[in-house]
Design goal:
Domain Alginate lyase: 119-343
Number of strands: 7
Helix content: 55-70%
Largest sheet: 3 strands, mixed
Protein name: Alginate lyase family protein
Distance between the termini: 18 Å
Keywords: Lyase, Signal
Order of helices and strands: HHEEHHEEHHEHHHHHHHHHHEEH
GO cellular component, one term: periplasmic space
GO molecular function: lyase activity
């Protein structure tokens, strides 16, 4: 990227942030009109379109070429925590060279994956494809390359649709990992993949149309996970329009997911939440708002961690493509990381927060954001650091996997 283009990115990011703020401002007043909201959204979409990179950088979905080179060197030198993280990934069920993929034409997922007709199988196979692809990208073992391709080819030949109430989220979970796996297999090492076009068609026709729509009125982790998947798939497909749309969704959703005092007395919220009572209900009954609080904090930390992790994933993929989403939401995301990391380790819960009761369990969601903000941008995140170090090597949680291996201390 040239210096002049870098400057353009900075200007575009600032304009985009203003467009997002305008969209929410127009949507918050009692006299809101559909016309004003639509105009703001159109302006924001136009900014995102202008922000599209002329060409995508590959590999450029969550993990980039320079990262892989760094990790290879660390593992070759038997340095920690990368060596232990790599050994853990290789020893996991997701790295099995004998396990067989379990595709089906229709994956039916109800609320909380009940019924589970292929939901767990698809998620596990997507994570396995990513795990095998990552191992291959690091050590060049062709057996893992062939297994990753075997899994993706099996699903490409069979899957037609996702159904039932959890279908959009399921599509996001699996699509995020399948997008990463495909990107690594297509752009690292020398490997024969005759079925690449067929898998690309699967992502383009079965996954992308669902995840690109977002989920405006659902809990925020849905839309953020779907946006993570959409941005991942868009880069693999070299689909600039979809990447732009995913970025526009991210710019709208992140300010609605994490509160800052400068937002006003109430958090930013989707258009349908047009009264104080509706906003508070959407924020799980929480009526006192502080910096870093998330829309799902009082639901549980598991879903909140997914939301934050997905938000950071999209920012990381954008970073690899030359777009600084991290910088655009630096204050909001760092406040959220530190707020939840501190509470995760606290022995007591303040009485004003979630009626004094928290469902903890943040999961392996902090490594990528911590590396960027603390490691690259020199933001002090003491509680996040403590939790990250205690949780290494980070494992797997649905669409999250092996992030100590891919992001710990990566320059």
């Amino acid at each position: 990227m040239t210096l002049s283009r870098h400057r353009v990115w900075i200007v575009v990011g600032l304009v985009a942030a203003l467009a997002a703020a305008l969209a929410v401002t127009l949507s918050r007043g009692d006299g809101r009109t559909a016309r004003s909201v639509s105009a703001a959204q159109d302006a924001q979409a136009a900014v995102a379109q202008a922000a599209a990179p002329a060409e995508f950088s590959h590999p450029g979905v969550l993990v980039g070429g320079k990262q892989l080179a760094y990790v290879r060197a660390r593992i070759k030198a038997r340095k920690q925590p990368w060596t232990k993280a790599f050994d853990t990934a290789k020893a996991s069920k997701y790295a099995s060279l004998t396990a067989k993929p379990r595709p089906r034409a229709v994956v039916e997922c109800g609320s909380s994956s009940n019924p589970d007709h292929g939901c767990s199988d698809e998620r596990d196979d997507a994570m396995a494809a990513y795990t095998h692809a990552l191992i291959f990208a690091i050590n060049g073992d062709q057996r893992h390359a062939r297994k990753a391709i075997e899994i993706m080819d099996a699903w490409a030949k069979v899957l037609k649709q996702h159904t039932n109430s959890n279908a959009p989220l399921q599509t996001g979970w699996a699509g995020a990992d399948f997008g990463r796996a495909a990107e690594l297999m297509a752009h690292t090492g020398k490997v024969s993949w005759p079925g690449r076009a067929r898998f690309a068609t699967l992502l383009r026709t079965v996954y992308l149309p669902t995840v690109i729509k977002g989920a405006a009125t659902k809990n925020g982790n849905w839309e953020l996970i779907m946006t993570d998947a959409a941005s991942s798939i868009a880069v693999f497909l070299d689909d600039r329009a979809s990447f732009d749309r995913a970025v526009a969704t991210w710019r709208k959703r992140v300010p609605m997911y994490v509160y800052l005092k400068k937002d006003g007395a109430l958090p930013k919220a989707p258009a349908a939440m047009n009264t104080r009572a509706k906003v508070i209900k959407y924020w799980q009954g929480q009526s006192t708002f502080v910096d870093g609080l998330a829309q799902e904090t009082c639901r549980d930390f598991g879903h909140t961690g997914w939301g934050l992790g997905a938000a950071v994933h999209t920012a990381e993929t954008a970073r690899l493509q030359g777009l600084d989403l991290y910088g655009e939401q630096k204050e909001r995301l760092t406040k959220a990381l530190e707020f939840h990391a501190k509470l995760q380790q606290a022995k007591t819960t303040p009485s004003w927060l979630c009626k004094g009761k928290l469902k903890k369990g943040l999961g392996p969601v902090l490594e990528v954001g911590y590396n960027q903000y603390a490691g690259h941008m020199a933001v002090a995140l003491p509680s996040t650091r403590k939790l990250v170090l205690a949780g290494r090597p980070a494992g797997v949680s649905y669409f999250l996997g092996w992030e100590t291996l891919t992001h710990a201390g990566v320059p």
